[in-house]
Design brief:
Residues 314-418 form the Fibronectin type-III domain. The chain contains three helices and 33 strands. By secondary structure, it is mainly β. The relative contact order is 0.08.
Length: 450
Protein backbone atom coordinates (compact mmCIF):
# COMPACT_ATOMS: atom_id res chain seq x y z
CA UNK A 1 0.00 0.00 0.00
CA UNK A 2 2.85 2.36 0.84
CA UNK A 3 4.33 1.70 -2.59
CA UNK A 4 1.03 2.51 -4.29
CA UNK A 5 0.69 5.79 -2.32
CA UNK A 6 4.23 6.80 -3.22
CA UNK A 7 3.56 6.15 -6.89
CA UNK A 8 0.35 8.21 -6.81
CA UNK A 9 2.07 11.19 -5.13
CA UNK A 10 4.92 11.04 -7.62
CA UNK A 11 2.45 11.01 -10.50
CA UNK A 12 0.63 14.06 -9.11
CA UNK A 13 3.86 16.02 -8.67
CA UNK A 14 4.97 15.09 -12.19
CA UNK A 15 1.63 16.22 -13.63
CA UNK A 16 1.88 19.60 -11.89
CA UNK A 17 5.45 20.10 -13.05
CA UNK A 18 4.53 19.06 -16.59
CA UNK A 19 1.55 21.47 -16.60
CA UNK A 20 3.71 24.34 -15.35
CA UNK A 21 6.32 23.58 -17.97
CA UNK A 22 3.78 23.79 -20.79
CA UNK A 23 1.96 26.87 -19.52
CA UNK A 24 3.04 29.65 -21.93
CA UNK A 25 3.58 33.39 -21.89
CA UNK A 26 1.22 35.83 -23.66
CA UNK A 27 1.90 38.89 -25.82
CA UNK A 28 -0.15 42.02 -26.35
CA UNK A 29 -0.77 42.76 -29.16
CA UNK A 30 -1.04 39.04 -29.86
CA UNK A 31 -0.35 39.12 -33.63
CA UNK A 32 2.31 36.77 -34.91
CA UNK A 33 3.39 39.48 -37.39
CA UNK A 34 3.51 43.22 -36.70
CA UNK A 35 3.97 45.67 -39.60
CA UNK A 36 5.44 49.14 -39.13
CA UNK A 37 7.10 51.87 -41.21
CA UNK A 38 10.52 53.22 -40.32
CA UNK A 39 10.50 55.95 -37.65
CA UNK A 40 7.18 54.71 -36.26
CA UNK A 41 6.94 53.45 -32.67
CA UNK A 42 5.83 50.13 -31.19
CA UNK A 43 5.22 48.69 -27.69
CA UNK A 44 4.72 44.96 -27.10
CA UNK A 45 3.86 43.62 -23.64
CA UNK A 46 4.87 40.16 -22.44
CA UNK A 47 2.88 38.65 -19.54
CA UNK A 48 3.74 35.64 -17.38
CA UNK A 49 1.12 33.51 -15.57
CA UNK A 50 3.56 33.25 -12.64
CA UNK A 51 4.73 36.56 -11.10
CA UNK A 52 7.79 34.80 -9.67
CA UNK A 53 9.16 34.02 -13.13
CA UNK A 54 11.77 36.47 -14.41
CA UNK A 55 11.23 37.54 -18.05
CA UNK A 56 13.55 38.87 -20.72
CA UNK A 57 13.31 39.95 -24.38
CA UNK A 58 15.64 38.72 -27.13
CA UNK A 59 16.45 40.40 -30.44
CA UNK A 60 16.47 38.55 -33.79
CA UNK A 61 20.22 38.05 -33.21
CA UNK A 62 19.56 36.34 -29.88
CA UNK A 63 20.81 39.26 -27.79
CA UNK A 64 19.03 39.93 -24.48
CA UNK A 65 17.67 43.49 -24.25
CA UNK A 66 18.79 44.93 -20.92
CA UNK A 67 18.62 48.71 -21.56
CA UNK A 68 15.92 50.69 -19.75
CA UNK A 69 16.17 53.73 -22.03
CA UNK A 70 17.12 54.44 -25.62
CA UNK A 71 15.69 53.70 -29.06
CA UNK A 72 14.95 50.07 -28.09
CA UNK A 73 14.54 49.37 -24.38
CA UNK A 74 12.49 47.40 -21.83
CA UNK A 75 10.04 48.63 -19.19
CA UNK A 76 8.70 46.55 -16.27
CA UNK A 77 5.40 47.85 -14.92
CA UNK A 78 4.72 44.84 -12.66
CA UNK A 79 6.44 41.60 -11.61
CA UNK A 80 4.58 39.51 -14.19
CA UNK A 81 4.83 42.01 -17.11
CA UNK A 82 7.76 43.17 -19.26
CA UNK A 83 7.37 45.56 -22.19
CA UNK A 84 9.70 46.10 -25.11
CA UNK A 85 9.60 49.64 -26.51
CA UNK A 86 10.68 50.69 -30.03
CA UNK A 87 10.83 54.50 -29.95
CA UNK A 88 11.89 54.85 -33.62
CA UNK A 89 11.82 51.72 -35.74
CA UNK A 90 14.66 51.18 -38.22
CA UNK A 91 14.99 48.78 -41.15
CA UNK A 92 17.56 46.79 -39.15
CA UNK A 93 14.94 45.98 -36.50
CA UNK A 94 13.04 43.56 -38.73
CA UNK A 95 13.01 39.91 -37.65
CA UNK A 96 11.75 37.64 -34.87
CA UNK A 97 11.61 39.13 -31.36
CA UNK A 98 10.96 36.71 -28.47
CA UNK A 99 9.96 36.94 -24.83
CA UNK A 100 11.30 34.12 -22.63
CA UNK A 101 11.39 32.99 -19.02
CA UNK A 102 14.93 33.38 -17.70
CA UNK A 103 14.87 29.88 -16.19
CA UNK A 104 13.26 28.29 -19.25
CA UNK A 105 10.30 27.09 -17.18
CA UNK A 106 7.70 28.49 -19.59
CA UNK A 107 7.26 28.31 -23.34
CA UNK A 108 8.55 31.49 -25.05
CA UNK A 109 6.40 33.78 -27.17
CA UNK A 110 7.60 35.69 -30.21
CA UNK A 111 6.45 37.94 -33.05
CA UNK A 112 7.85 38.83 -36.46
CA UNK A 113 8.50 42.54 -36.93
CA UNK A 114 8.06 43.51 -40.60
CA UNK A 115 9.51 46.94 -41.40
CA UNK A 116 8.62 48.98 -44.48
CA UNK A 117 10.28 52.22 -45.57
CA UNK A 118 8.35 54.92 -47.41
CA UNK A 119 9.67 56.27 -50.70
CA UNK A 120 12.40 58.89 -50.35
CA UNK A 121 14.69 60.58 -52.88
CA UNK A 122 18.32 61.23 -51.98
CA UNK A 123 18.66 64.07 -54.52
CA UNK A 124 16.85 67.39 -54.10
CA UNK A 125 18.08 69.52 -57.04
CA UNK A 126 15.18 70.77 -59.17
CA UNK A 127 17.10 72.50 -62.00
CA UNK A 128 20.13 71.36 -63.97
CA UNK A 129 21.98 72.94 -66.88
CA UNK A 130 23.80 71.03 -69.63
CA UNK A 131 25.76 72.26 -72.64
CA UNK A 132 24.32 71.49 -76.04
CA UNK A 133 25.79 68.32 -77.60
CA UNK A 134 26.98 66.78 -74.33
CA UNK A 135 25.65 63.85 -72.29
CA UNK A 136 23.37 64.53 -69.35
CA UNK A 137 22.62 62.34 -66.35
CA UNK A 138 19.60 63.21 -64.25
CA UNK A 139 20.08 61.54 -60.87
CA UNK A 140 17.17 59.87 -59.13
CA UNK A 141 18.28 57.55 -56.35
CA UNK A 142 15.21 56.11 -54.65
CA UNK A 143 15.08 54.47 -51.24
CA UNK A 144 12.24 52.35 -49.91
CA UNK A 145 11.30 48.93 -48.55
CA UNK A 146 10.20 47.06 -50.54
CA UNK A 147 12.36 48.57 -53.29
CA UNK A 148 10.20 50.92 -55.43
CA UNK A 149 9.77 50.57 -59.19
CA UNK A 150 10.81 53.67 -61.18
CA UNK A 151 9.50 55.11 -64.46
CA UNK A 152 10.59 58.27 -66.32
CA UNK A 153 8.51 60.93 -68.08
CA UNK A 154 9.47 63.93 -70.23
CA UNK A 155 7.01 66.84 -70.25
CA UNK A 156 4.31 64.42 -69.08
CA UNK A 157 5.00 61.71 -71.68
CA UNK A 158 6.56 58.29 -70.85
CA UNK A 159 10.16 57.86 -71.96
CA UNK A 160 11.00 54.80 -74.06
CA UNK A 161 14.57 53.92 -73.15
CA UNK A 162 16.85 51.68 -75.20
CA UNK A 163 19.53 49.28 -74.03
CA UNK A 164 22.21 50.27 -76.57
CA UNK A 165 24.92 52.75 -75.64
CA UNK A 166 23.92 55.08 -78.50
CA UNK A 167 20.22 55.20 -77.55
CA UNK A 168 18.83 58.66 -76.89
CA UNK A 169 17.70 57.65 -73.38
CA UNK A 170 19.10 54.99 -71.06
CA UNK A 171 17.57 54.25 -67.67
CA UNK A 172 20.26 53.70 -65.06
CA UNK A 173 20.00 52.24 -61.56
CA UNK A 174 20.17 55.73 -60.07
CA UNK A 175 19.04 58.02 -62.88
CA UNK A 176 18.45 58.73 -66.57
CA UNK A 177 21.19 59.16 -69.19
CA UNK A 178 20.48 61.43 -72.18
CA UNK A 179 22.91 61.31 -75.11
CA UNK A 180 23.85 64.37 -77.19
CA UNK A 181 21.35 66.81 -75.74
CA UNK A 182 19.77 69.41 -78.01
CA UNK A 183 17.48 72.35 -77.36
CA UNK A 184 14.54 70.00 -78.00
CA UNK A 185 15.52 68.17 -74.79
CA UNK A 186 14.79 71.25 -72.69
CA UNK A 187 11.90 70.59 -70.32
CA UNK A 188 10.70 68.77 -67.21
CA UNK A 189 11.85 65.24 -66.44
CA UNK A 190 9.82 63.34 -63.85
CA UNK A 191 11.15 60.35 -61.92
CA UNK A 192 8.12 58.45 -60.58
CA UNK A 193 8.58 55.79 -57.91
CA UNK A 194 5.87 53.21 -57.19
CA UNK A 195 5.69 50.98 -54.12
CA UNK A 196 3.17 48.30 -53.13
CA UNK A 197 3.26 46.37 -49.84
CA UNK A 198 0.84 44.39 -47.67
CA UNK A 199 -0.66 47.44 -45.95
CA UNK A 200 -0.49 50.28 -48.48
CA UNK A 201 0.58 51.51 -51.90
CA UNK A 202 2.38 54.74 -52.68
CA UNK A 203 3.63 56.87 -55.57
CA UNK A 204 6.08 59.75 -55.26
CA UNK A 205 7.50 61.97 -58.00
CA UNK A 206 10.63 64.05 -58.33
CA UNK A 207 10.75 66.63 -61.14
CA UNK A 208 13.88 68.19 -62.62
CA UNK A 209 13.89 71.07 -65.11
CA UNK A 210 16.74 70.60 -67.56
CA UNK A 211 18.03 73.66 -69.40
CA UNK A 212 20.33 73.33 -72.40
CA UNK A 213 23.13 75.88 -72.57
CA UNK A 214 23.30 77.36 -76.07
CA UNK A 215 24.28 80.53 -77.86
CA UNK A 216 21.58 83.15 -78.54
CA UNK A 217 19.07 82.47 -81.31
CA UNK A 218 16.35 84.81 -82.52
CA UNK A 219 12.86 84.05 -81.28
CA UNK A 220 10.10 83.10 -83.71
CA UNK A 221 8.40 86.49 -83.36
CA UNK A 222 8.33 88.14 -86.82
CA UNK A 223 11.17 90.64 -87.17
CA UNK A 224 10.36 94.14 -88.43
CA UNK A 225 13.43 95.54 -90.16
CA UNK A 226 11.83 98.88 -91.11
CA UNK A 227 10.06 101.19 -88.66
CA UNK A 228 8.50 104.64 -89.09
CA UNK A 229 8.09 107.61 -86.78
CA UNK A 230 7.22 111.29 -87.05
CA UNK A 231 8.87 114.36 -85.53
CA UNK A 232 7.98 114.73 -81.82
CA UNK A 233 6.69 111.16 -81.79
CA UNK A 234 8.27 107.94 -80.55
CA UNK A 235 9.27 104.61 -82.06
CA UNK A 236 9.85 101.37 -80.14
CA UNK A 237 12.21 98.75 -81.58
CA UNK A 238 12.08 95.18 -80.24
CA UNK A 239 14.86 92.61 -79.93
CA UNK A 240 13.95 89.06 -78.80
CA UNK A 241 16.46 86.21 -78.45
CA UNK A 242 16.48 82.85 -76.68
CA UNK A 243 19.69 81.82 -74.94
CA UNK A 244 20.91 79.77 -71.99
CA UNK A 245 22.26 81.39 -69.96
CA UNK A 246 20.10 84.39 -70.94
CA UNK A 247 21.77 86.87 -73.25
CA UNK A 248 22.86 90.39 -72.43
CA UNK A 249 21.28 92.93 -74.80
CA UNK A 250 22.99 96.09 -76.01
CA UNK A 251 21.83 98.71 -78.52
CA UNK A 252 24.02 100.65 -80.95
CA UNK A 253 23.61 103.53 -83.35
CA UNK A 254 26.43 103.22 -85.85
CA UNK A 255 29.33 102.32 -83.52
CA UNK A 256 28.02 104.17 -80.48
CA UNK A 257 26.52 102.20 -77.63
CA UNK A 258 23.19 103.65 -76.50
CA UNK A 259 22.19 104.24 -72.89
CA UNK A 260 18.78 104.83 -71.41
CA UNK A 261 17.98 108.47 -70.61
CA UNK A 262 14.84 110.51 -70.28
CA UNK A 263 15.48 112.71 -73.32
CA UNK A 264 16.51 110.55 -76.28
CA UNK A 265 16.31 106.84 -75.49
CA UNK A 266 14.48 104.52 -73.11
CA UNK A 267 15.84 100.97 -72.90
CA UNK A 268 14.04 98.13 -71.13
CA UNK A 269 15.39 94.57 -70.93
CA UNK A 270 14.38 91.21 -69.53
CA UNK A 271 15.87 87.71 -69.77
CA UNK A 272 14.81 87.13 -73.38
CA UNK A 273 13.96 90.54 -74.85
CA UNK A 274 14.96 94.17 -74.96
CA UNK A 275 13.17 97.26 -76.28
CA UNK A 276 14.56 100.60 -77.42
CA UNK A 277 12.15 103.55 -77.45
CA UNK A 278 13.44 106.47 -79.50
CA UNK A 279 12.14 109.97 -78.77
CA UNK A 280 12.19 111.62 -82.20
CA UNK A 281 13.08 115.28 -81.61
CA UNK A 282 14.30 116.02 -85.15
CA UNK A 283 15.26 114.36 -88.43
CA UNK A 284 18.66 113.26 -87.08
CA UNK A 285 16.91 110.42 -85.21
CA UNK A 286 16.16 108.62 -88.48
CA UNK A 287 19.00 106.11 -88.78
CA UNK A 288 20.02 102.46 -88.42
CA UNK A 289 19.81 100.91 -84.94
CA UNK A 290 21.56 97.65 -84.09
CA UNK A 291 20.66 95.17 -81.35
CA UNK A 292 23.27 92.71 -80.05
CA UNK A 293 22.45 89.63 -77.95
CA UNK A 294 25.43 87.92 -76.34
CA UNK A 295 26.29 85.19 -73.82
CA UNK A 296 29.44 83.15 -73.20
CA UNK A 297 28.58 80.75 -76.02
CA UNK A 298 28.04 83.25 -78.82
CA UNK A 299 26.77 86.56 -80.16
CA UNK A 300 24.08 87.54 -82.68
CA UNK A 301 22.97 90.97 -83.88
CA UNK A 302 20.63 92.58 -86.38
CA UNK A 303 19.69 96.07 -87.56
CA UNK A 304 16.42 97.97 -87.77
CA UNK A 305 16.05 101.03 -89.98
CA UNK A 306 14.01 103.98 -88.64
CA UNK A 307 12.58 106.26 -91.35
CA UNK A 308 10.42 109.36 -91.26
CA UNK A 309 6.69 108.84 -91.58
CA UNK A 310 3.54 110.91 -91.23
CA UNK A 311 1.41 111.48 -88.19
CA UNK A 312 -2.06 109.97 -88.74
CA UNK A 313 -5.17 112.18 -88.59
CA UNK A 314 -7.30 112.04 -85.45
CA UNK A 315 -10.64 110.18 -85.65
CA UNK A 316 -13.21 112.33 -87.44
CA UNK A 317 -16.22 110.60 -85.97
CA UNK A 318 -16.27 109.41 -82.36
CA UNK A 319 -19.62 108.84 -80.69
CA UNK A 320 -21.60 106.41 -78.56
CA UNK A 321 -24.03 104.26 -80.52
CA UNK A 322 -25.40 102.17 -77.65
CA UNK A 323 -24.77 101.10 -74.06
CA UNK A 324 -26.02 98.94 -71.20
CA UNK A 325 -24.88 98.19 -67.64
CA UNK A 326 -21.43 96.86 -68.65
CA UNK A 327 -20.79 97.74 -72.32
CA UNK A 328 -20.29 100.79 -74.56
CA UNK A 329 -20.81 100.45 -78.33
CA UNK A 330 -18.59 103.13 -79.91
CA UNK A 331 -18.50 104.43 -83.49
CA UNK A 332 -15.05 105.43 -84.80
CA UNK A 333 -13.89 106.54 -88.24
CA UNK A 334 -10.99 108.40 -89.81
CA UNK A 335 -9.80 109.18 -93.35
CA UNK A 336 -7.66 106.19 -94.25
CA UNK A 337 -5.56 107.88 -96.93
CA UNK A 338 -4.42 106.62 -100.34
CA UNK A 339 -4.62 102.81 -100.58
CA UNK A 340 -1.00 102.52 -101.77
CA UNK A 341 0.41 104.75 -98.99
CA UNK A 342 2.27 103.03 -96.10
CA UNK A 343 1.06 105.85 -93.84
CA UNK A 344 -2.64 105.02 -94.14
CA UNK A 345 -4.69 104.57 -90.95
CA UNK A 346 -4.63 100.88 -89.97
CA UNK A 347 -6.33 100.95 -86.58
CA UNK A 348 -7.52 102.78 -83.48
CA UNK A 349 -6.78 102.95 -79.78
CA UNK A 350 -9.47 103.72 -77.18
CA UNK A 351 -8.50 104.74 -73.65
CA UNK A 352 -11.02 104.85 -70.82
CA UNK A 353 -11.20 105.18 -67.04
CA UNK A 354 -13.86 105.97 -64.47
CA UNK A 355 -14.40 109.55 -63.41
CA UNK A 356 -13.30 108.59 -59.89
CA UNK A 357 -10.06 107.03 -61.21
CA UNK A 358 -9.37 110.17 -63.24
CA UNK A 359 -9.69 112.33 -60.12
CA UNK A 360 -7.56 109.94 -58.06
CA UNK A 361 -4.78 110.07 -60.71
CA UNK A 362 -4.85 113.89 -60.68
CA UNK A 363 -6.18 114.14 -64.22
CA UNK A 364 -3.53 111.86 -65.79
CA UNK A 365 -4.19 109.04 -68.24
CA UNK A 366 -1.16 106.96 -67.23
CA UNK A 367 -3.24 104.20 -65.61
CA UNK A 368 -6.12 104.28 -68.09
CA UNK A 369 -7.28 101.03 -69.65
CA UNK A 370 -6.49 100.67 -73.36
CA UNK A 371 -7.91 98.66 -76.23
CA UNK A 372 -6.44 98.51 -79.75
CA UNK A 373 -8.57 97.69 -82.79
CA UNK A 374 -7.81 97.05 -86.45
CA UNK A 375 -9.30 99.47 -88.99
CA UNK A 376 -12.69 98.41 -90.34
CA UNK A 377 -14.83 100.65 -92.51
CA UNK A 378 -18.24 101.25 -90.87
CA UNK A 379 -17.49 99.01 -87.87
CA UNK A 380 -18.37 99.73 -84.26
CA UNK A 381 -16.12 98.90 -81.32
CA UNK A 382 -17.15 97.44 -77.96
CA UNK A 383 -15.82 98.35 -74.52
CA UNK A 384 -16.87 95.50 -72.22
CA UNK A 385 -16.63 94.47 -68.56
CA UNK A 386 -17.56 97.94 -67.33
CA UNK A 387 -19.03 98.74 -63.92
CA UNK A 388 -22.79 99.43 -63.83
CA UNK A 389 -24.15 102.89 -63.02
CA UNK A 390 -20.68 104.44 -63.47
CA UNK A 391 -19.43 107.51 -65.34
CA UNK A 392 -16.48 106.83 -67.68
CA UNK A 393 -14.13 109.21 -69.46
CA UNK A 394 -13.32 107.97 -72.97
CA UNK A 395 -10.99 109.19 -75.73
CA UNK A 396 -9.66 107.71 -79.00
CA UNK A 397 -6.73 107.99 -81.42
CA UNK A 398 -5.94 106.71 -84.92
CA UNK A 399 -2.91 104.51 -85.65
CA UNK A 400 -0.62 103.99 -88.63
CA UNK A 401 2.90 102.59 -89.10
CA UNK A 402 4.43 105.81 -87.72
CA UNK A 403 2.46 105.81 -84.46
CA UNK A 404 -0.69 107.31 -82.97
CA UNK A 405 -2.54 110.53 -83.74
CA UNK A 406 -3.55 113.10 -81.18
CA UNK A 407 -6.43 111.93 -79.01
CA UNK A 408 -9.95 113.20 -79.51
CA UNK A 409 -11.55 115.37 -76.88
CA UNK A 410 -12.63 113.43 -73.81
CA UNK A 411 -16.23 112.19 -73.77
CA UNK A 412 -18.28 111.28 -70.69
CA UNK A 413 -20.49 108.19 -70.90
CA UNK A 414 -22.44 106.46 -68.13
CA UNK A 415 -23.43 102.81 -67.91
CA UNK A 416 -26.94 101.76 -66.92
CA UNK A 417 -27.84 100.70 -63.41
CA UNK A 418 -28.63 97.06 -62.67
CA UNK A 419 -31.84 98.15 -60.89
CA UNK A 420 -34.88 97.89 -63.22
CA UNK A 421 -36.74 101.08 -64.05
CA UNK A 422 -40.23 101.29 -62.50
CA UNK A 423 -42.84 103.86 -63.58
CA UNK A 424 -44.73 105.92 -60.97
CA UNK A 425 -48.02 104.13 -61.76
CA UNK A 426 -46.44 100.75 -61.20
CA UNK A 427 -44.91 102.01 -57.94
CA UNK A 428 -48.34 103.17 -56.67
CA UNK A 429 -49.94 99.83 -57.59
CA UNK A 430 -47.12 97.95 -55.87
CA UNK A 431 -47.50 100.08 -52.71
CA UNK A 432 -51.26 99.46 -52.64
CA UNK A 433 -50.70 95.70 -52.93
CA UNK A 434 -48.26 95.79 -50.04
CA UNK A 435 -50.71 97.78 -47.87
CA UNK A 436 -53.59 95.39 -48.66
CA UNK A 437 -51.38 92.42 -47.84
CA UNK A 438 -50.45 93.87 -44.46
CA UNK A 439 -54.09 94.65 -43.62
CA UNK A 440 -55.21 91.13 -44.58
CA UNK A 441 -52.47 89.61 -42.44
CA UNK A 442 -53.56 91.69 -39.42
CA UNK A 443 -57.19 90.56 -39.81
CA UNK A 444 -56.16 86.90 -39.99
CA UNK A 445 -53.89 87.19 -36.96
CA UNK A 446 -56.42 89.07 -34.73
CA UNK A 447 -57.94 85.90 -33.08
CA UNK A 448 -54.46 84.75 -32.09
CA UNK A 449 -53.40 88.14 -30.78
CA UNK A 450 -56.48 88.40 -28.48
Amino acid sequence: MRLIGFILNLAALTAVAWANHHESLSLSPAEHSVVRYTNESLIVQCRSPDPKVELHWKSPKGEIIREHKGRIHIEQTSTEQLKIVFAHIALADKGNWSCEAADGSLHSKSFDLIVYQKITFTENATVMTVKEGEKATILCEVKGEPQPNVTWHFNGQPISAGAADDSKFRILADGLLINKVTQNDTGEYACRAYQVNSIASDMQERTVLMKIEHKPIWSKTPFVSLKYAYINGTATLMCEALAEPPANFTWYRKHNKLHSNNRLYTIQSDSYWSSLTIHVLNTSAFDNYRCRARNDLGTIERTTRLEQGEKPPSPANFQLRGFNSNTFDVVLSAPRGPPDSPMGVNGFRIEYMTEMEFKTDAGKWTNARRKDYAFEEGATFLLTNLEPDTVYLVRAASRNLAGFSDFTKVEKYKTLSLEPRVSSGVKETRNMCVELGVMTLMVLMRPFLG
